[in-house]
Design goal:
alpha/beta; Nucleotidyltransferase, domain 5; 2 domains; 5-stranded mixed sheet; 10 helices; 10 strands; about 20% strand
């Protein structure tokens, strides 16, 4: 089954073709992502109306480009998958409208994919031997969640952020220190030149039981440290390093607790913050010590992309699931409400 995947949940237009007849990563026939970073930079954040308009401008050309790179035409498609939520409602409607129209015109099934399920399943796209059960850390600009994965489509929320997501905290902290948009990657790059331990910030909510997160207080600590500092480049780098270490340590501590609680030694990490170098190193060290494994998608598939939507959609389409003909999106959508694709393993 050849499935076209369309991702338009926020400020990146992603398109991909996944072929289930090809094993593992070979099934990804082609994919492309157009980022709106330059468009939103002057506003210091995503402007929803501008994001929707740019998806309208770029989506059809990107579909043509991706199909050409895959050596396919629309007539070769067996299904269409699109991000139905969560996300910005206008942006979601652009992708859903185009996807439903294509499916209707080609007389093929379409499926609305949960954005975070797409992220969660991205590591499986590249490693066909990776199977549930496992624990997943979904960590991005909009989400920070620990999820128990009993089977594909069977998810249990173990813990989540009570305020800012980790990626959001990265972006906001970078902005308050005067780093350019998008701030998260800039802060992580700056942290590489900082001195470890020069600034020591708290590891929020690690001094009590539970798997929930909170990063707003950490952001306030950085604000106070920056306000009272000499504001030199060296100090900015040291604060960035202290902040990054605090976030990485907090995520790692909670991941260890989740693995212990689930009686599992396989951790899957997905989402934009999953590309963070220090987080990867920390979690690999923990997995090695436990005798387990941690799985990440390649960095290009950590951020929003059409490949994860095509893959997740293909799994559900092959299971006989599909959406109706209406254009329907869900800006807020609980992943635990998704129907199962596979039965849970004993």
């Amino acid at each position: 089954m050849r499935v076209l995947g369309i991702e338009t949940s926020c400020d990146e237009t992603g398109v991909a073709v996944y072929d289930t007849a090809r094993p593992g990563p070979e099934g990804l026939r082609a994919h492309a992502v157009y980022s709106q970073i330059a468009l939103h930079a002057e506003y210091g954040g995503v402007v929803p109306e501008l994001a929707s308009r740019d998806h309208v401008r770029k989506l059809l050309p990107l579909i043509r480009q991706t199909l050409a790179e895959a050596g396919l035409t629309t007539a070769d498609l067996d299904g269409v998958a699109y991000t139905a939520g969560p996300g910005l409602v206008g942006a979601l409607l652009v992708g859903a409208g185009v996807a439903r129209s294509l499916a209707w015109g080609l007389d093929v099934p379409a499926i609305g994919v949960h954005h975070m399920e797409g992220h969660l399943l991205a590591p499986l796209l590249e490693d066909p031997d990776l199977k549930p059960p496992f624990v997943a850390l979904l960590v991005s600009g909009g989400h920070t969640q620990l999820v128990g994965v009993d089977a594909i489509g069977r998810y249990r929320l173990l813990g989540e952020t009570l305020d800012d997501a980790a990626g959001e905290a990265f972006d906001k902290t970078a902005k308050l220190m005067g780093l350019p948009y998008p701030g998260g990657p800039q802060l992580a790059k700056l942290a590489e030149t900082g001195t470890p331990g020069a600034y020591k910030f708290s590891r929020p909510m690690t001094d009590r039981p539970g798997l929930d997160f909170s990063f707003s207080g950490l952001k306030t600590q950085v604000l106070l440290a920056w306000r009272d500092s000499d504001r030199t480049d060296a100090t900015r780098a040291n604060i960035a390093r202290g902040f990054e270490d605090a976030v990485v340590d907090t995520l790692a501590i909670k991941c260890q607790r989740a693995l212990d609680a689930a009686g599992c030694d396989t951790l899957v990490v997905a989402g934009g913050v999953g590309a963070n170098k220090r987080l990867r190193e920390k979690l690999h060290a923990i997995a090695d010590k436990r005798g387990g494994r941690v799985c990440f998608p390649r960095p290009a598939l950590c951020t929003d992309n059409g490949a994860m939507i095509a893959f997740a959609g293909a799994l559900r389409l092959e299971a006989g699931q599909s959406a109706g003909r209406e254009v329907h999106v869900q800006p807020r959508w609980d992943m635990a409400s998704l129907p199962a694709v596979q039965p849970a393993t004993a």
